[in-house]
């Protein structure tokens, strides 16, 4: 065996001794570069990396300080896993561009130290961490701030993690980063189902959507019309008509087709009469792209609110004009609701229902005093007596209305309260459900029962009138002493009575324009307050 000469051995040793310090110096240069940028970010200075302004000022400096400013994305496959997670955000209705997909795809090959300078490696590492923090925040809590989109929003968000930087470290170190990131999104069944529907509608859109229905006379069973085959194809496209029924031929509008249209109408909040009229045709002709926008908006709502909702709660869907008592995975009670007019909108908030009141009195609020009650009193001196109303001083003493100069006051300056006593004309009906809140909104019965038959029920001043309120009262009380018969007997007495609940019940007043019902059917509703428009604009705006 030939021995190497001493000079060759010494040369190899010298070469190795020279490369170790060089690699260490390179690593130190990357760490120094990361530290300089994160220190500047923490100090409140604007920091731009590769053309991107860093926005995660709180989490990123702590994340890198915990790592002694070592890069997080140099391990093989880690950058690819991040890119996969970013691309997958589209399935949540988010825009991958917000999570820096294009620059990261362009620069990912330079993550290796063999082809990149220490400064470029530091910049790329910071950019990847910025993208991950943005994406984690968006999936966990929503991309947008609900209070900026809707000034009336009053639902506390999901509490942030105790140490957000540790969460980011856990994600980076995960064996399956893309799966770990996806798990940050709400796991609520409603969110999962909306995600599935978004994928379905995108597939429909990619396949060309569905045919539009031409104008024409209203269609009823037994009529013939050249639009019938088109209507069949349209209803099959969204699953409202089974494909086997869609294979029928001819121009006759039969009962099977009418039943499919009725299913579609029910999903859209229309009267399910199976008659193809102007409103039904308009909804049928809404393009898939518009439905996709609604699904994206409501996924964002889901990120705002679903993580903070429990299993048992009373919820109102303002857009659908409906209320539900949810217990576990089932609906214990459901009723139609009347909500605020577009110029007196019912807000979105949460509060705890603590008691209900039988035979409630009604104190006329200032705006209604100004706009309705005071003008009526000025025109008719018998208005108060005829409507079972009394005038009370601020300390609750009765005041003779004949002694008041009504022309001197409006609803804000009147030094008295006008209170309507219990009875058949009281707008609160037989019961009201009280959950103290900043908006003075509550649920209540109403003598105006005919309004529940209207498909669009925006008639109140902001409070929520509910159908079948006594059945709801019985379920909420959950007490054998308060059966339906006992409640009816108490109401018959005609005197006001407050009944506390054994345990508070959370109330969520929400606004869903797309949701999946308990039977798995997707529903859409019109954006009666115009709130979807603002959320969509915020979703599509730069991060």
**Share of helical residues:** 40-55%
Task: Figure out the total of helices.
Answer: 19
Q: Approximately how much beta-strand content do the residues carry?
A: 5-15%
Strand order of the largest sheet: 3-4-5-14-12-11-6-15
For the record, give the distance between the C-alpha atoms at the N and C termini, rounded to a whole number: 67 Å
Question: How does this structure look, described?
Answer:
- By secondary structure, the chain is an alpha+beta fold.
- The chain has helices spanning 6-42, 59-66, 78-88, 101-107, 118-141, 146-149, 164-173, 177-182, 189-206, 228-237, 243-246, 255-267, 278-284, 288-305, 366-379, 383-386, 469-477, 484-493, 531-540, and strands spanning 48-49, 52-53, 312-317, 322-327, 330-340, 349-358, 362-363, 389-392, 398-399, 417-420, 431-434, 443-444, 458-460, 464-466, 497-510, 514-516, 522-524.
- The protein has an eight-stranded mixed β-barrel. A four-stranded antiparallel β-sheet has the order 7-10-8-9.
- The longest helix is centred in the N-terminal third of the chain and has 37 residues, at 6-42.
Topology diagram in text:
Blueprint: H1 6-42, E1 48-49, E2 52-53, H2 59-66, H3 78-88, H4 101-107, H5 118-141, H6 146-149, H7 164-173, H8 177-182, H9 189-206, H10 228-237, H11 243-246, H12 255-267, H13 278-284, H14 288-305, E3 312-317, E4 322-327, E5 330-340, E6 349-358, E7 362-363, H15 366-379, H16 383-386, E8 389-392, E9 398-399, E10 417-420, E11 431-434, E12 443-444, E13 458-460, E14 464-466, H17 469-477, H18 484-493, E15 497-510, E16 514-516, E17 522-524, H19 531-540
Parallel strand pairs: 3-15, 5-13, 12-14
Antiparallel strand pairs: 1-2, 3-4, 4-5, 5-14, 6-11, 6-15, 7-10, 8-9, 8-10, 11-12, 16-17
Helix pairs in contact: 1-2, 1-5, 2-7, 9-14, 14-19
